[in-house]
Amino acid sequence: MNLRTHTPIVVKLNSGVAPVNKVDYRRVLACLDGYMNIALEQTEVYVSGQVKHKCGDAFIPGNVLYVSTEKRRM
To answer: Which residues does UniProt assign to the signal peptide (predicted)?
Structure first.
């Protein structure tokens, strides 16, 4: 995967079950390793498209289904 740090991204997790509400983690990529462990800065948790939590720095272990760059919204 070719992502640059300090790039806004969207992360969706592979939970193994069909979620009732779609959960995304969005914000700035701090670090990504070969095992798909992801560190985010200024993290926001979205449920069904709405911001539910703002949690600052976050670590997401390698159970990632989808990672995409996100256009900045100012």
So the answer is: none
Q: In the predicted model, is pLDDT for residue 74 greater than 70? A: no
CB atoms within 10 A of CB 27: 21
Q: What is the CATH number of domain 8-69?
A: 2.30.30.100
| Residue-level length of the chain | 74
Burial of 17 (0-12, 13-18, 19+ CB in 10 A): exposed
CA distance 9 to 50: 16
- Predicted TM-score of the model (pTM): 0.76
Every domain of the chain and the residues it spans: 8-69
